[in-house]
TrEMBL record, chain A:
Its cofactor is FAD. Belongs to the acyl-CoA dehydrogenase family. Keywords: FAD, Flavoprotein, Oxidoreductase. InterPro entries: Acyl-CoA_Oxase/DH_mid-dom, Acyl-CoA_Oxase/DH_mid-dom_sf, AcylCo_DH-like_C, AcylCo_DH/oxidase_C, AcylCoA_DH/ox_N, AcylCoA_DH/ox_N_sf, AcylCoA_DH/oxidase_NM_dom_sf, Mycobact_Acyl-CoA_DH. Pfam families: Acyl-CoA_dh_1, Acyl-CoA_dh_M, Acyl-CoA_dh_N. GO terms for cellular component: plasma membrane. This is Acyl-CoA dehydrogenase. Residues 240-392 form the Acyl-CoA dehydrogenase/oxidase C-terminal domain. Residues 34-130 form the Acyl-CoA dehydrogenase/oxidase N-terminal domain. One of its GO terms (molecular function) is oxidoreductase activity, acting on the CH-CH group of donors. Residues 134-228 form the Acyl-CoA oxidase/dehydrogenase middle domain. It comes from Afipia massiliensis.
From TrEMBL, chain B:
Keywords: FAD, Flavoprotein, Oxidoreductase. Residues 6-118 form the Acyl-CoA dehydrogenase/oxidase N-terminal domain. The keyword NAD does not apply. It comes from the Bacteria. The keyword Oxidoreductase applies. Its cofactor is FAD. Residues 221-357 form the Acyl-CoA dehydrogenase/oxidase C-terminal domain. This is Acyl-CoA dehydrogenase. Pfam families: Acyl-CoA_dh_1, Acyl-CoA_dh_N. InterPro entries: Acyl-CoA_Oxase/DH_mid-dom_sf (IPR046373), AcylCo_DH-like_C (IPR036250), AcylCo_DH/oxidase_C (IPR009075), AcylCoA_DH/ox_N (IPR013786), AcylCoA_DH/ox_N_sf (IPR037069), AcylCoA_DH/oxidase_NM_dom_sf (IPR009100).
Length: 414, 375
């Protein structure tokens, strides 16, 4: 049990540090080094453009998607080297947000199921930030019940014709490509009639409509497919095996979301340290201290749980269902922390003006953003089911639609 | 970086688990809990023979000289098995204090006896209601003797010796407190066993009347040493708590798989599954924090004070959470004397108070985090 670098790791760290020192976009140091749970502002510059610039620069020097094989634009790095890179990259790593889904989920799925030619063609530009990918899974009638999706893909000669609608698609409005799961056989029980594809988001018949969220922003989209034609060569995995393909994606999703999840704790600690209440600094208040300590140990527990996962990965183990814990804990924590920080501000807590106290609406913004952290990528309840069933070995839920042909299952609502 | 125990350490864990499962079954825990014996003497002797008592004690003082990571492994198994022996008082507190601050002569005198199971030790710190505080200490030391009353003292009725925190000055500062080794079998010591929540973790009141006392380390440094001993013990105790939490989770899981109601195993109901998932979450976070603590303890890292408080709080919460919800999953049967759930519930709530309460450690953690942020 140690944190020490091996001589090889120390050399890697030194190399990474020197390169970052010489190449990082220091003009954004002030913006990126601020606590930024939620949206990042880069002066008046476009975050997507700036993120792409930094990613391209990293890719050219061999620092992109470190754990991917070199032939796909990575570096063939060990899990520990990846962590070392993240430690050294520090707040500049915030510029990777727009690539998270593509590189964290679509890439690994493509790597596992794509053709050799496609992998060589599409993975390097995904690694370098030239292309952004999205993941088209959820549908209006299928949220937590992901396998209840209705978007159809029908075989016509060597092509597939896709019709239907996806929803909650993060970043679809600036994505170049996407992986999409569809129903190819409605006469099969729901998990068995699914097939996965990848497609160009600019294909004729694809329409993206941003959704205005509860917090007023639009990170997610509705995506409509009308007679979208793609060749069979864009299929990922076998026909009817889409559910298994999607499990690869989702497992990588939980690992990559969980490891980077914000808890809001460092921001809250700093806030309580500075805030003056009637009787003195907030951090001297007994109630505040007890709450802070409770969250401190959760944040710490998550950090070292991810270190344990990385140790397991470096021994060659696959990311398992236990990684569901990261998002489950952090999501609720973020929401609770926002409410607590606002409570400390009294009536002023309701204000969102940038002029209000030094914290400038930060926790208010977290308050409105955090509900989605408990839903997107698996609700708290689904994550608890995964832990109960797949980690603890408890029986699966009773499924009345099991073994029933999909087109015979009644549906209603969204 | 490697954030796991080594293969050797895992083997040691398996060995300790096998041994304790066999030698410390619930029946043996109950025998002590129900007052048939003050502790399990045969088990204590067995633990010594297995080398578990001296695992972190250097070889020159009769131990195995393996180290603190190995001791963490054993502590977890002691916690899983609810072993009814004075392990925490003797090993986490007394032995650690002597290893940290003792003279060569004191080490040579006590450590071999601890490793062999011949001597039971404890820390006499508390003086009634409240948490560790130098201001609360009234037991006084002068001219090589201590006087006053300590209560409660864990395993105080069965210990052979105690590390006693006593007042040596009247400036009102921490430097007024010194640590002393007192032979509890000598003159001027009166002991009274106290009824408590978990008789398998006995408590006593000890009154000293000019009892002979030998300074442990520099007497002006007593509070400082004590703080360091408590931090080290907090990490070790946290492993014991995580062991208990894990076992309580397993018991709940097994029962949920076995028990059928409304025509289904109760573990197939989401309400029950989610209770168990939350138990897993708290036990896992605590375990990870314990590993952080184990790393800090074994390397004597500057982060130890913060890591110790983190492990302590997390493990206290996890053991309390898992043991109370284990009863909930068991329903009415969980509340019976016959089922073992209450053994874990009792132990969780006694360990939660044993080195200072949750509130005390929460305060410690925030102070330490502030100090780190400021420095």
């Amino acid at each position: 049990m140690n944190f020490d670098d091996t001589p090889q790791e120390a050399a890697f760290r030194a190399e990474a540090r020197a390169w970052i020192q010489a190449n990082a976009p220091k003009e954004f140091e002030a913006e990126l080094s601020q606590p930024t749970v939620g949206r990042i502002k880069l002066k008046n510059r476009d975050i997507l453009e700036e993120s792409k610039k930094w990613q391209t620069k990293k890719a050219a020097a061999g620092w992109a998607c470190l754990h991917w094989p070199k032939e796909f634009g990575g570096r063939g790095a060990t899990p520990i080297e990846r962590v070392i890179w993240q430690q050294e990259e520090g707040f500049y790593g915030k510029l990777e947000g727009v690539f998270l889904i593509g590189q964290g989920m679509c890439g690994p799925t493509m790597m596992a199921f794509g053709s050799d030619a496609d992998k060589k063609k599409y993975l390097p530009p995904l690694a370098s930030g030239e292309h952004v990918w999205c993941q088209l899974f959820s549908e209006p009638s299928a949220g937590s019940d992901v396998a209840g999706l209705r978007t159809r893909a029908e075989k016509k000669g060597d092509d597939w014709i896709i019709n239907g609608q996806k929803v909650w698609t993060t970043g679809a409005h600036f994505s170049d490509y996407g992986i999409v799961i569809t129903r190819t056989d409605p006469t099969q029980p729901k998990h068995k009639g699914l097939t996965m594809f990848w497609l160009d988001m600019k294909s004729p018949g694809v329409v993206v409509k941003p959704i205005k969220q509860a917090n007023g922003q639009s990170e997610f989209n509705e995506v409509y497919f009308t007679d979208v034609k793609i060749p069979d060569s864009q299929r990922l995995g076998k026909v009817g095996d889409g559910w298994n393909v999607s499990l690869t994606t989702l497992m990588n999703e939980r690992m990559s979301i969980g490891a980077r999840q914000s808890t809001g704790f460092p921001e809250l600690f700093a806030f309580c340290n500075d805030l003056m209440l009637e009787d003195g600094p907030a951090i001297d208040d007994k109630n505040v201290r007890s709450k802070l300590a409770g969250w401190a140990v959760k944040a710490s527990g998550l950090k070292y749980t991810s270190y344990r996962s990385i140790s397991a990965l470096s021994r060659g183990e696959r990311p398992g269902p236990e990684n569901s814990i990261g998002k489950l804990v952090a999501g609720t924590m973020l929401q609770d922390i926002a409410m607590f920080a606002m409570d400390l501000q009294g009536a002023s807590g309701a204000l969102t003006d940038a002029d209000s106290p030094s914290i400038a609406g930060q926790f208010q913004s977290i308050l409105l953003r955090s509900p989605s952290d408990r839903i997107a990528g698996g609700t708290d309840e689904i994550l608890r089911n995964i832990i109960a069933e797949r980690v603890l070995g408890l029986p699966g839920d009773i499924r009345v639609d099991k073994d029933v042909p999909f087109n015979a299952i009644p549906t209603k609502g969204r | 970086m490697n954030f796991e125990f080594s293969e050797d350490q895992k083997q040691l864990r398996d060995q300790a688990r096998r041994y304790l499962t066999e030698q410390s079954p619930p029946k043996a825990v109950r025998a002590v809990l129900e007052g048939n014996a003050p502790y399990d003497k045969a088990l204590w002797k067995g633990l010594a023979e297995m080398g578990f008592l001296g695992v972190a004690i250097p070889e020159e003082f009769g131990g195995a000289g393996a180290g603190h990571l190995e001791l963490c492994v054993i502590a977890e198994e002691i916690g899983r098995a609810l072993a009814p022996v004075p392990f925490s008082s003797t090993i986490y507190l007394a032995a650690e204090a002597i290893m940290l601050a003792g003279s060569d002569a004191q080490k040579a005198k006590w450590l071999p006896k601890i490793a062999s199971g011949e001597a039971i030790g404890t820390l006499a710190l508390f003086e009634g209601v409240g948490n560790p505080s130098h201001k609360a200490i009234k037991v006084s030391a002068s001219q090589g003797a201590v006087s006053g009353t300590k209560t409660p003292v864990a395993d105080g009725a069965i210990a052979n010796f105690a590390i006693v925190a006593a007042r040596t000055g009247s400036t009102g500062r921490e430097a007024d407190i010194g640590l002393f080794i007192v032979d509890l079998t000598g003159d001027g010591v009166t002991r009274k066993p106290l009824a408590n929540l978990d008789q398998a973790h006995g408590q006593a009141e000890i009154t000293f009347d000019r009892a002979k006392a030998e300074p442990l380390g520099n007497t002006a440094e007593g509070w400082n040493i004590l703080t360091r001993v408590l931090d080290r013990a907090a990490v070790l105790m946290a492993f014991e708590q995580v062991g208990g939490a894990d076992r309580a989770l397993e018991m709940g899981r097994d029962y949920a798989l076995d028990r059928v109601a409304f025509g289904r195993p109760i573990g197939s109901f989401q309400a029950v599954k989610h209770i168990l998932a939350d138990m897993y979450v708290s036990a896992t976070l605590a375990r990870s924090n314990c590993y952080y603590g184990a790393w800090a303890l074994s390397t004597d890292a500057g982060e130890l004070p913060e890591a110790a408080a983190t492990a302590r709080i997390s493990a206290t919460q996890a053991f309390q959470h898992c043991s109370k919800n284990n009863i909930q999953v068991h329903g009415g049967m969980g509340f019976t004397w016959e089922f073992d759930c209450h053994l874990y519930y009792r132990r969780a709530n006694v360990l939660a108070l044993s080195l200072g309460s949750l509130t005390y450690w929460e305060n410690q953690l925030i102070d330490r985090m502030r100090f780190r942020n400021a420095s």
